[in-house]
Amino acid sequence: MTGTPLAVEGLRKGFADRDTVVKAIDDVGFEVKEGEVYTLLGPSGCGKTSTLRAVAGLERPDEGRIVIDGTAVTGDGVFVPPNRRDIGMVFQSYGIWPHMTVFENAAFPLRVARPKVPKKEIAARVESALAAVHLGGFEGRNATQLSGGQQQRLALARALVRRPKLLLLDEPLSNLDAKLRQAMRAELASLQQETGITTLFVTHDQDEALSMSSRIAVMQAGRIVQEGRPRDIYQRPETRFVADFVGTTNFLPGRGADGARITTEVGEFAVKDAPHAAGEDVLLAVRPESVLLHLSEPSGTPNVVRGRVDRVMFVGEAVDCHIRVGDAVWVTRQDPHLAAVSGDEVWLELPADKIAVLA
Amino acid sequence: MTATALREPPAVAAEPVRQRRRPAATGLLAVVITVPALVIVGLLGVVVYLGFRAHGTPDGALTTSNFTVLFGDAEVWSVVRNTVVYVLVTVGVALFFGTALALLVERSDFGWGRTIATAMVLRILVPGFFTAMGWIFLFHPRIGAVNQWLMEWFHLGHAPVNIVSLVGMGFVEGLALSALVFGMVSASLGALDGSLEEAARASGAGPLRVLFRVTLPLVRPGLLGAGLFAGTIAVSSLDIPLIMGLSNRTYVFSSYLYVATNPSAGTPEYGVPAAFSAVMILLGVAFTLWYQRVLRSGRKYQVVAGKGHRPARIRLGRWRWAAWLFVGGYFLWSTILPVLMVVWISLLPFVQKPSAAAFKVASLDNYRQLDWSFVERGLTTTIKLMVIAPTLAVLMSLAFSFVVVRARRRYRMVYDLVAFLPQAVPTTVFAFGAMIAALYWTRGWYGLYGTLALLVGVTALVQIAFGTRMFNAGLLQIHVELEEAAAMSGASSWTALRRVTLPLLRPVVTYTWLWLALLSLRDLTVPTLIGGQDTLTLSVASWTLFNSGQVGASSALTLLMILFMAPVVVLFLLLTRKNEGKAPV
Predict the structure, then answer these.
(1) What is the ipTM of this complex?
(2) Do the Cβ atoms of A83 and B196 come within 8 Å?
(3) I need a labelling partner for B84 at 20 to 30 A (CA). Which of B108, B161, B174, B493 fits?
(4) Separation CA B566–CA A103 (nearest Å)
(5) pLDDT-above-70 percentage for chain B
(6) pTM (two decimals)
C-alpha cells in the first residue's frame, strides 16, 4: 500500500507489419497520483489504447515497467495477468454480457473474487454500485434491454463494484450521441470525485480530456509529447502538433527579434515570454477566442494587424469569423452579435499573454 | 414518387406511359421456386402416404397397421436405441474435438491457425467411408492392426478395442464431423466482441472461468447450431453405418432403411420403413420449427457493439507441449493413420497388419487388376453428378434465398422452412421417397427409376438446405440499400439483382458451388439408395467392391477417387483463401 497508484516506465511495444516493425508504444513513462484523473489524449493510432491495455495486462509490452499501487505487475521478469491486477475497466463497446442480467453483470467481479465475498455483501455492494450510476431498480432487467447510455453506466458500476485501486477508461463515451455524451461526462466526473478513485482515461476527444482530467498526456506516434494540466496544455502548447490537435489554432511563422518581440510577415508582435534567442525561427500560435476583433483601427494598442472578413459562420453560442490576413486565413471566435459582414476591413488584436511561442 | 409528381407539370404527367411492366424479381422467383418447394414437400408426402398403405406400395390397401407393427417391432426399437446412442456419441465427439481445436486456434497463442483451418477443410472433404475403412484396418477386433499388435505385446485373449460397434461408429462419424463443428465454432468465436471476454478478465476472472462463464455461454447459439447440424448429418449419413455396421448387423436408421429396401432375398417390404420414415419426417418438421424459434430468440444475443476486436490471446506457456500433443494426436489418429492404412491395404492381396513379411507381398496388383471399364463408368457418372447437381442446387438456392431474405410477404418464412427440410429430415428418407415415386409413377419415356436424372435431381434438392443457409447469410450482409440505390438510379429489380446483388454475392456462390461439388463427389447416401445401372458413381463402385469382400481393390479405387478430388480441392482452397472467415455453413 505504498507508492503511487500507477507508475509506468520506459514502456515499449512494437507490432510486426509485413517487414517493418511499427512502434505502437515508444518509451512511454508517467506517474498517476492518488485520486487523479490522468488522461492519455491523442489521435487514433498514437498508442494511447495500447498503453492502457498494457496497464490492464491485456497486452504484453516488449519492454518497460508498470507498477500498480507499489506492486510491479509488468517488468523485471514479472507479468501479473489482468485478473490479478487491482483494476476496474470500462471498454469502448462496454463489454456488457448479453447472457446475464444487470445484477449478474455488476456482481461478476465479486463472484469471481478471491477470497470469496459473502452473498449478502455481494447483494449490498451491487445495489449501492447500481444506485451510484442511477441504475437502481434495473437489477432483474436483461442487459441487452438497456440503452447505450445505461449499458455504459452498468459497465462503470461493474468496474467500480470491487473498489479497485485503479479505474481504466478506454474511450468510454465515444459510442454515445453528442447530447448524452455531455451528460455522461459530468456524471462520470462527479462519480470520480465522490469515490476519489485514481483513473487512467484514454480519449481522442479534446473536450472530454480538457473537462475531466487532472492532468493530460498528449500522445503522438507512440510517445508522450506533452504532459500537463488541462489549462497548460490548451494555453501553452509546446509543439505545433499539440496546439493543432487540442483545439483550433492560428499559426504564424516568425523570427525572434530582441527579447520579447517576434518579427513576422504581417508585422512585429510583443510576446510575454519568448524563451528563444534572437534570429531563431519560431511559430506563433493563437487560439480563435483569444483574438480580439475591432471594427475600427484601435489607437495605441500593440499587436494589431489588419485583415478582411472572409466569411462569418454562426455556430450558435458564437460566430466563427474567418479573417484573411496576408495570404493566410485566421479563425477567430466572436460574440454572436458581431456586426461585421463578409468583405469588411477589420483589425485583429493579439494580446501578448495569449500568444504561445513554439519552436 | 409523390414529390416528383407534385413538381412535374400536368402535361407531362398526362402523357401515356408506354413502359412495359415486368413482374418484380421477388414475385416471379417466388413462383419459380414453388416447383422445387412442392417437390421437396411432395417427396415427403409420398413417404407418409406409403406409410398408410399395406406393404408400402401405392396400390396397397389403406391401413394403419404399418404403424402398429412399427411400434411393436423389437428390431425397430433396437434401431431407435442404436440411432440414439450413435448420434449422441457422434455429437459429443464432434463438439468436443471441434470446439477444443477452435478455442485453441482462436483464443490461445498456439498459432498455426491457417494451417489447422486448411487441414480441417481437407478433413471434411475426405469421404466418410474412407476414414471408416482406415479405422477398420486399425481397430477391427479381428483384422485391425493396432488390436493385433496390442494382443501380441500384452498377450491379451481378445481385442481390446472394437471399432465396429455403435460407440465406434459414433466416434468415427464424430471425428469426421468435428471439422464441421470447428468451422462453425471458429466463426462464432471470431464474430464475438473481444471486449466481452476482456471485461471478464479485467473483473478478476481467470482464463478458465472466462471460458465457462463468458465465452462458451456467448457462443452457445453457435455450439447448439453446430451440434444440431452434426446430429442431423449423422442421422442422414449412410457411409459409416454401412461400412462399419453392416457386417455385424448393427443397424442405425439410415442403414436400416437401406437394408429394408434392398433385401438380400425376397421382395422388399416398404410398409414399416415408410412408417418409420414418416415418424422421422414428423421429428424433422418439429425440429425445424423449434430450430427457427431458437434462431429468432438467438437474436437477442446480438450486442450493441463497437468494433469487434479479438481479445488478448491466452498464453499457453509451459502447457504448449500438451496443446501440440492434442493437435498432433487429433490429426494423426483422425486422418493420417487411417489414410496410411488404406494406402497399405490397397497394396496387399489380402488384409494384414504392417510387417516385414507383409511388405514382401506388397504390389500394385490391386491397381492393375481394377476393372477399368467399371471405374470409367463410375467416373463419368461422378463427373456428371458433380457438375450438374451443384449448379442446379446453387440456382434453386439463390432463388429461395432471394425470396426469403428480400420479399416482404409472410409466405417467405414458409419457403425458408421448406428449404431447411432436407437438413432436418434424413437424406435417406428423401432418396427413399424419390425411388418409390419414380418406380410407381414414372413410366416409359419419362421413366425416372434408376436414371442419372433422378440421382442429380434428388442430390440437388437435398443440397438446397446447405445452399440456402449460405446464401441467406450472404444476402443479409448485402445491405438492402445497395439494391435500393440501384432502383433510385433507374434500374429495374431484375437489373439491380443482376448488376448489383449477384456480383456482390459471387464469392459466396463460387464457394458454395465448389463445396457442393465436393460433397456430391463423396456422397454415398443418395446414389446407393436411388440405386440403378445409370447411377453407379465412384463412391458406389468403391462400396460395392468393399461389400463383396474385395477390400484391396476397394481401397485402391478410393485412393484414385481422392486423387481425382485433389484438383477441385486445390481450387477450393485457393479460392477460399481470399474469402477468409467464410466458414462452412
Answers:
(1) 0.80
(2) no
(3) B161
(4) 55
(5) 91
(6) 0.81
